[in-house]
Design a protein that fits this description.
little secondary structure; two-stranded antiparallel sheet; 9 strands; LRR_dom_sf
C-alpha cells in the first residue's frame, strides 16, 4: 500500500454541523473528501467550507511536492489528526500556524512530523489549541533542522505538563520565543527541557503568563551558553515564589533581563548571585516590576554587571520592599537611566542607595557631580516616586521623585 492510499484511509475528525471550515489553504491539497464527495476539482485555493457536514470523518491528501504547510488548518474545527497526515510531504520546511486556532483539538499524534526531516519552522503551529492537554515526547524527534519554536504552544490553556525530551533532537534551534506563553495550567518545567539546544539565543517570553507555574528548575538553561536575552521569560508567573540562584550561571552572553520576572506577584526573595555570571548585561528594565511580595534586595545583586546602562522600572510597584542596600549600584557606574526604578515602593525606609567616594556619600541623584567616577544619569524621572518615608526623600531633587 502506498503512503498516499494509507493516508487517505486515515481521516481527520471534525465537529459536524453547518458552515464547517475544512481547510484554510486548499492550494496545498490533492484531495479532500467530505460526506463522500471530492471537493478538490482543479485549482482551488484559500479556505474551503461545507454548508453542512454530516460525517465527522474527512479524508485529506496533500500534494507530493508541497514545502509550505503554513496555516493549512487555521481556525478549523478539527478534533483529531491522523498520525500519517503529512507522511507524503517529505520536502515540507514550514509548519507555521498549521493548526493555529484549532480550539477543539484535544491531542497530537506522536509521529505527526516523523516524515518531515527538512522542516525549519514550527512558528505558531499549535497556537490557541485551548483543549490540548499534553504533547507527545517524540513529536519533534525526526526534525533535526528546526530553528524556530516561536509561539508553538502559546495559548494552550489546558496544557498541564511538558515531556522532558520534547526538544532533545533539535540541536539547531535558536528561538524559543513565547513557546509556552499563556499556558495557564502548566505547573512545572522539566529540568532538561533545553539540554540539547546549545544554539538558542533567545528565551523571550518563553513561559510568560504561565499563571500556575510554581517553580523553576535550577539547570533549566545550563546548556544554553549563547543566549543573549531573557526578556519577559517568566513575566506574569504569578504563582512563582522563588528563583534558583544558579538559574543563569551558564549564560555569560546575556545582554538583557528586561521584564524577566515582571509581575511575579508571589516572589518573596531574590538570590544574591542570580546575575553573578552575566557580565555583558546592559539592561535590567522592569526586571522585577510589580513583584508585590518582595521585601528585600540582596546587597550584591548587580555587583558583577558593570556594563549596565538601564535600570528603568526595575523594582517599580514592589510595595512590600522595605529598604534598598546602600551599595546596590556601586559597580554599575555607566547607568544613564534610573527612571521609575523604585516608583511606587511605598514601604521604603532608610536611605537611598549611595556609593562612597573619598569618604563622601554619593547618592544616585548626585552622580552628575562626579563625572570622573560615573556616567551622568540622563533619564531619572519618578525614580523614588511615592517613597515618602525614605530618609533622604526630601533631599532628593524633585525630578527624581515626581
Amino acid at each position: 500500500m502506498s503512503v498516499n492510499s494509507f493516508t487517505k484511509h486515515e481521516p481527520l475528525i471534525f465537529k459536524t454541523g453547518s458552515n464547517i471550515k475544512l481547510i484554510h489553504r486548499a492550494e496545498f491539497c490533492k484531495s479532500i473528501i467530505a460526506d463522500g464527495k471530492e471537493l478538490i476539482t482543479g485549482n482551488e485555493s484559500g479556505e474551503i467550507r461545507v454548508p453542512e457536514l454530516k460525517d465527522e470523518k474527512v479524508y485529506i491528501t496533500f500534494k507530493d511536492d508541497v514545502t509550505d504547510l503554513s496555516y493549512a488548518f487555521f481556525d478549523c474545527t478539527v478534533t483529531s489528526i491522523p498520525e500519517n497526515l503529512f507522511a507524503n510531504c517529505p520536502k515540507a520546511t514550514d509548519f507555521s500556524g498549521t493548526f493555529n486556532g484549532c480550539t477543539a483539538l484535544i491531542e497530537i499524534p506522536e509521529q505527526l512530523f516523523a516524515n518531515n526531516p527538512e522542516v525549519t519552522s514550527f512558528y505558531d503551529t499549535f497556537y490557541g489549541c485551548r483543549a490540548l492537554i499534553s504533547i507527545p515526547e517524540n513529536l519533534f524527534a525526526k526534525n533535526p533542522n528546526v530553528t524556530d519554536f516561536t509561539y508553538t504552544f502559546s495559548f494552550c490553556k489546558s496544557l498541564k505538563y511538558i515531556q522532558k525530551n520534547l526538544f532533545a533532537n533539535n540541536p539547531k534551534v535558536t528561538i524559543f520565543q513565547r513557546t509556552f506563553w499563556k499556558c495557564s495550567a502548566l505547573k512545572s518545567i522539566p529540568e532538561n527541557l533545553f539540554a540539547n539546544n546549545p544554539k538558542v539565543t533567545t528565551f523571550q517570553g518563553t513561559f510568560s503568563a504561565c499563571d500556575a507555574l510554581a517553580a523553576i528548575p535550577e539547570n533549566l538553561f545550563a546548556n544554553n551558553p549563547e543566549v543573549t536575552d531573557f526578556i519577559h521569560t517568566f513575566y506574569g508567573c504569578s504563582a512563582l515564589t522563588a528563583i534558583p540562584e544558579n538559574l543563569f550561571a551558564n549564560n555569560p552572553a546575556v545582554t538583557t533581563f528586561d521584564g524577566t520576572f515582571s509581575g511575579c506577584k508571589a516572589l518573596t526573595e531574590i538570590p544574591e548571585n542570580l546575575f553573578a555570571n552575566n557580565p555583558e548585561v546592559i539592561s535590567f528594565n522592569a526586571t522585577f516590576i510589580i513583584c508585590l511580595a518582595l521585601t528585600a534586595i540582596p546587597n550584591n545583586l548587580f555587583a558583577n554587571n558593570p556594563k549596565v546602562t538601564d535600570f528603568s522600572e526595575t523594582f517599580e510597584g514592589c510595595w512590600a520592599l522595605k529598604s534598598i542596600p546602600s551599595s546596590l549600584f556601586d559597580n554599575n557606574r555607566k547607568v544613564t537611566s534610573f527612571s521609575e526604578t523604585f516608583r511606587g515602593c511605598t514601604s521604603l525606609t532608610g536611605e537611598s542607595p549611595y556609593t562612597m567616594i573619598e569618604d563622601q556619600k554619593v547618592h544616585l541623584y548626585e552622580r552628575v557631580n562626579y563625572p570622573d567616577h560615573f556616567t551622568e544619569p540622563i533619564v531619572f524621572w519618578d525614580c523614588f516616586y511615592d517613597s515618602t518615608d525614605m530618609r533622604d526623600y526630601i533631599q532628593a531633587p524633585d525630578d527624581w521623585k515626581e
